[in-house]
Amino acid sequence: MLAKRIIPCLDVKDGRTVKGVNFVDLRDAGDPVELAWNYSQQGADELVFLDITATVERRKTMVELVKAVARQINIPFTIGGGINEIADADALLNAGADKISINSAAVRNPALIDELARAFGVQFVVIAVDTRVIGDKNIVHLNGGRLPTEKQTLDWIIEAESRGAGEILLTSMDHDGTKGGFDNGLLKLVNDTVNIPVIASGGAGSVQHFVDVFQQTNVDAALAASVFHYGEILIPDLKSVLRENNIEVRV
Amino acid sequence: MIGIIRYGAGNIFSLTAALERLGIAYGMVNTEADFEQFDRYIIPGVGHAGAAMNKLEQTGLVPKIKSLNKPTLGICVGMQLLTSHSEEGDANLLNLFPIKTLKFTSDGSFKVPHTGWNQVFPEKENPLFENIPAGSHFYFVHSYFIEYDQLYTLSSTSYINKFSASIWHGNFYGVQFHPEKSGTYGETLLRNFSNI
Q: Is B54 helix (H, G, I), strand (E, B) or coil?
């Protein structure tokens, strides 16, 4: 059976791993390549790197990071952050990235999804969606959840799939950093609607939260950062509990 | 030493990185004369099978590839090229295996592409899978699959239907998954291939 994936997420700035609580107040959690290697040894199924470097040198630093990771890591990984055009994606593909994750650039220019899918195949294109509830609606947000858009989350995800997204990385900004569990209601709705893999993100605080998200929503993967970085959840322990709950995982 | 056949279909950084980590020597095959330098070959490939076949034909290497008698491993789309035909682009391929590459048809209960770690079960004894337990997980990303065939399927995986996770005929091998991204067992498979 196809295994449910466990994905540690590494936020990277200027070549170092950071993780914010609700994306503010960043803390340093180490060297990304060393951390990535450790996760691959522990049994992580995949890794996501979000580069939040904001300098003009960013493409060069991302390419160097991707090459360093691809040289040392034997599992797939996705790189995201500031990818705005085909040339960015091409450079990262050639450096060994398996997938790229696009967020703001796709919202601002949805045709970018079509272009990327045509150029590199749908399997290369992950659309990251940050969502926050306003009133009674889930609204797509940009800039780490600070900037609301006009788009309703489910509508945007359906559009992204139709344009060529190969996977959806859905982060609930209301849950992110709370350690109170994933947004299982929204995740189930999205997972039941689309026919591409969905990665749940935002809110992981305990092993039970992972059991809940897989059992209640049937998403393909669950992503978390700080619970892994600070050793609050160890991946082998997490996987053995998932297995005890009859959730298929890679041993 | 492994010769990687270059024809412009996809990047090979991850594959060469894996071979370097394992200490397996490799070089590039760009012309017919290059084949002589190597004792085995890998045909890589990602993307569209029909487009990949067009690129391969443009290199002029097709007759040479079909005549190879040293161990040759196709990976992902590189494996699909070994079959007779793909529904992707309705393309005729190398026909080293008289079986077809078909599109997954899902009623919506399965997602396509088949993405992630799935279990691989050997159907035959072969050194390619030495020291790899039955049911080990390998990393797949594909929308087209090679039909299951009693004669040619070396190992199988089930997703929507049972299909060929790997194929074997004489000196030709193919794997649908990505050994370079499949953790320790993927590395074991690459090492096994380097020793066949």
A: helix
Over residues B176-195, the pLDDT tens digits come to 999 999 999 999 999 999 99
Nearest to B113 among A3, A5, A123 (CB): A123
Buried b (16+ CB within 10 A) or exposed e, A139-165: bbbbebbeeeeebebbebbeebbebbb
> Tell me: the pLDDT tens digits for B75-118?
999 999 999 999 998 999 999 999 999 999 987 789 988 999 99
In chain B, which residue's Cα lies nearest the Cα of A68? B17
- Using DSSP's 3-state secondary structure scheme, residue B23 falls into coil
pTM over 0.95: no
Within 8 A of B47 by CB-CB distance, chain A residues are 120-121
Cα–Cα distance for residue pair A12/A14, rounded to 1 Å: 7
Residue A102 backbone class (left: φ over 0; alpha: ψ -120 to 50; beta: rest): beta
CA distance A20 to A36: 18
User: In chain A, what residues touch B8 (CB-CB under 8 Å)?
Assistant: none
The reply to whether B180 belongs to the active site is yes
Contact between B21 and A74 using a beta-carbon 8 Å cutoff: yes
Could you tell me if A12 and A50 are in contact, meaning their C-beta atoms sit under 8 angstroms apart? yes
Residues in chain B within 8 Å Cβ distance of A196? 111-113
**A7 bridge partner residues:** A223
Cβ–Cβ under 8 Å, residues B101 and B80: yes
Which tokens belong to A11?
A: 């936020």
Please indicate if any CB of chain A lies within 8 Å of the CB of B24: no
